[in-house]
Amino acid sequence: MSPRSAAVRVGVLAPMVIELQPVVARLGMEGDGSLYRGLTGDGVEVIAMLTNIGMANGASAATRMLDHDVDHVMVVGIAGGVDQNVLSIGDVVVPEAVVRRGASGSFRPAFLGAIAPKGTLSCGDDLITDPAVLARMGAQGVIAVDMETAAVAEVCHAADVPWSVFRGISDFAGEGLISDELFALTQRDGSADPDDVAKYLEEHPDQLPVLKRLAHDTQRATEAAAAAAVEACAALVT
After folding, report:
1. Mind listing the pLDDT tens digit for each residue in 51-82?
2. Minimal CA–CA distance to 69: which of 156, 137, 1, 164?
3. Would you give the end-to-end CA distance of the chain in angstroms?
4. pTM, whole model, 2 decimals?
5. Is there a smaller number of Cβ atoms within 10 Å at the N or the C end of the chain?
6. Would residue 47 count as lying in a domain?
7. Does 71 reside within a domain?
8. How many domains does the chain have?
């Protein structure tokens, strides 16, 4: 691991470029597109890293982040809401527990900032859209889903490094806005090939309003998650 500095050092992991950039912009960070460095107004040193989508990528990025000798890891980005009666678009989820779908046990984040923790965040590589499945998950206390956090939690737990989660709600899984076909257009870093998108819209012109809505709501959610994470860094200053 690298030599320690005097400052508190936080590692921020964001799966997609659109999730990473609001953190970078808020802190005026400098980097190469995948790794950035900066300071909060409270003097907390922040290293922000792009993980790419998926559980394996989340675990790999968390392992690399720990090589930077961070005091705390934050997962920042978007999530799909499970129950519209519990959450709204743009709300930031700070879960009480994080689980990997199909595995036993759960992980408990460290709680920082002003957002009260609630519910369970369920994580896995599969795209959950079945209303019946989502209803069962909701009955078990799951309020949102994502594709990386539990993998990061496993790595941090094994290394005894505290971690937190700030996920903005960008859509609701049960609405079916993100289909398997649409998700297949998404590259590892969350971007999409313009030619592929153009072809998709040519074949599905009715989906243009959906894509516009997703883009708007995703930006709202990423900005909210980034703001919550940056503000929470102040709690690490003693």
Report:
1. 999 999 999 999 999 999 999 999 999 999 99
2. 1
3. 24
4. 0.93
5. C
6. yes
7. yes
8. 1
Residue 194 belongs to a domain: no
For 165, the domain range is 9-173+215-236
Question: What CATH number is associated with residue 23?
Answer: 3.40.50.1580
3-state secondary structure the chain: CCCCCCCCEEEEEECCHHHHHHHHHHHCCEECCCEEEEECCCCCEEEEEECCCCHHHHHHHHHHHHCCCCCEEEEEEEEEECCCCCCCCCCEECCCEEEECCCCCCECCCCCCCCCCCCEEEECCCCCCCHHHHHHHHHCCEEEEECCHHHHHHHHHHHCCCEEEEEEEEEEHHHCCCCHHHHCCECCCCCECHHHHHHHHHHCHHHHHHHHHHHHHHHHHHHHHHHHHHHHHHHHCC
Q: Is residue 34 part of a domain?
A: yes
